[in-house]
């Protein structure tokens, strides 16, 4: 369930968990004054699929697997930098 931010002229800012289908609050649940729902930046993003490399390690992961994963991440970052620079010139 998403969390929405509201601003009350009396109480200040507060958060409220609501379903997406629920109408926005009109009154502050604390003092009853009219509230305004704020526009938030979102809670983040979700990566789907298996074609990305995580820098996080697993507890039972071998040293070789850790170094391979780190190398893939580093090579990927270098490749992205090269691609960015070649497009801008």
Question: How are the secondary structure elements laid out?
Answer:
Layout (H helix, E strand, L loop, with lengths): L2 E6 L3 E6 L18 E2 L25 H26 L1
Write structural notes for this entry.
The chain is of the alpha+beta class and 89 residues long. The chain folds into two domains: 3-37, no CATH class; 56-89. The chain is 29% helix and 16% strand. The protein is built from one helix and three strands, in the order E-E-E-H. It has one helix at residues 63-88; strands at residues 3-8, 12-17, 36-37. It has a three-stranded antiparallel β-sheet with strand order 2-1-3, with no helix packed on it.
Name the structural class: alpha+beta
Give a count of the beta strands, DSSP E runs of length 2 or more.
3
- Which stretches are low in confidence, meaning pLDDT under 50 for 5 or more residues running? none
Q: What is the radius of gyration?
A: 23 Å
What integer is the average pLDDT?
Answer: 76
Number of helices: 1
Query: What fraction strand?
Result: 15-25%
Order of helices and strands: EEEH
Strand order of the largest sheet: 2-1-3
Number of domains: 2
State the gist of this model.
This protein has one helix spanning 63-88, and strands at residues 3-8, 12-17, 36-37. The chain has 89 residues and is α+β, with helices and mostly antiparallel strands. Strands 2-1-3 form a three-stranded antiparallel beta sheet, with no helix packed on it.
Keywords:
1 helix, alpha+beta, three-stranded antiparallel beta sheet, elongated, 89 residues, 2 domains
